[in-house]
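Students often ask why inverse folding is considered easier than folding. One informal answer: many sequences map to the same fold, so there is more than one right answer. In these notes we will look at a single instance of the problem. The structure comes first.
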């Protein structure tokens, strides 16, 4: 008797996991309609969703939660070779988290205008970044004496620690 090969998981199948998780947690009032899945070599490593409301944590976006879980499961901060599947176009924080984690490919099924249509808006953050962070109504960045930080950084460099 011929052995059946397992069905190949498609982008749609993986995205459905993120959508189902987001639907579950949004119905429980844990967070918004944003789910994320981390996959490595075709294997699902983590599935999470937005937990901003549940955790009272503005950084608990679906992508960040999935990245945190994947890092814990894999025992590393470096998710090279992993892919991120997100139900919404990642906000600047989530894009940064994916970049810091060395994720090179992000699949999205929702675009910024889709989230904006229901009241979510990341546009002011993107504008803030584009405008070289000069909008004091969004955030004021005040440079202070650099010497203490430079000394601290030099100490770290001298210790030959991991740069990530």
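Output (designed amino acids):
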């Amino acid at each position: 008797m011929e052995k059946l090969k397992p069905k190949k998981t498609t982008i749609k199948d993986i995205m459905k996991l993120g959508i189902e998780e987001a639907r579950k947690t949004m119905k429980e009032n844990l967070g918004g309609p944003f789910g994320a899945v981390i996959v490595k070599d075709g294997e699902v490593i983590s599935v999470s969703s937005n937990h901003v409301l549940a955790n009272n944590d503005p950084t608990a976006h679906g992508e960040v939660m999935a990245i945190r879980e994947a890092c814990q499961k894999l025992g590393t901060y470096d998710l090279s070779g992993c892919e991120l599947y997100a139900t919404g176009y990642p906000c600047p924080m989530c894009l940064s988290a994916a970049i810091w984690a060395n994720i090179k490919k992000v699949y999205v099924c929702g675009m910024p205008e889709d989230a904006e249509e229901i009241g979510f808006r990341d546009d002011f953050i993107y504008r803030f970044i584009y405008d070289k962070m000069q909008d004091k109504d969004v955030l004021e960045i005040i440079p202070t004496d650099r010497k203490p930080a430079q000394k601290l950084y030099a100490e770290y460099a001298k210790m030959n620690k991991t740069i990530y």
